[in-house]
Amino acid sequence: MGKRYGARILLYLSLVLLLSACGASRVGTKDGAPDSRSSHSHALIDHAQSYLGTPYQWGGTSKKGIDCAGLIKRSFDAIDLSVPRVTADLVKIGKKIHIKDLVPGDLVFFKTGKSRKKVNHVGLVTNNRNTEVSFIHASTSKGVMISKLVEPYWLAHFITARRILK
């Protein structure tokens, strides 16, 4: 009986350690429930990053060529959330947020070019570490890439940010 009892105790302790390790790695809300926003933002970003290096193509929506709004549309489609296909419409949805409150999954909008009078470029925030925001977008010159919001060009052309994921 001594060996069986010892084996049961060892099995019990192993299960407790295993379950507590799994629980500690789970992202949750204040009430302990899984954070669906976090899992959605990870899936959203992962899908967008699968396009890294894809060439820019105005109106494109595939890995052969894609534009900035096409990248956002395809990424949100991947998590079963429908969003507009055009940047001018994307900027109208979700909740407006301050630049200091950006989190992965948020959208950042820009006015680029000298003759532009409206928002014409969008990116998806991939991370925000120490107030250094990175975002993925489809650049006309380099295709799908990750840039930093602190870069002078992007900071000078930044207009607003929106949160679609809740």
> What is the first-to-last residue Cα distance?
55 Å
Strand content: 15-25%
Order of helices and strands: HHEEHHEEEEEHE
Q: What is the strand tally?
A: 8
Residue runs with pLDDT of under 50 for 5 or more positions: 5-35
Mean pLDDT: 82
Question: What's the short story on this structure?
Answer:
This protein is an alpha+beta fold and 166 residues long. The chain is 36% helix and 24% strand.
Description:
The relative contact order is 0.16. This protein has 166 residues and is α+β, with helices and mostly antiparallel strands. It is globular and about 35 Å long. The chain is built from five helices and eight strands; from the N terminus they run ααββααβββββαβ. It has a six-stranded antiparallel β-sheet. Strands 1-2 form a two-stranded antiparallel ribbon. A hairpin with a 2-residue loop joins strand 1 (61-62) and strand 2. The termini are far apart. The protein has helices at residues 2-25, 36-49, 68-78, 87-90, 152-157; strands at 61-62, 65-66, 95-97, 107-110, 121-129, 132-139, 143-148, 158-163. Helix content is 36%, strand content 24%. The model is unreliable at 5-35 (pLDDT under 50). Helix 2 crosses helix 3.
Descriptive terms for the model:
166 residues, alpha+beta, 6-stranded antiparallel β-sheet, two-stranded antiparallel ribbon, 36% helix, globular
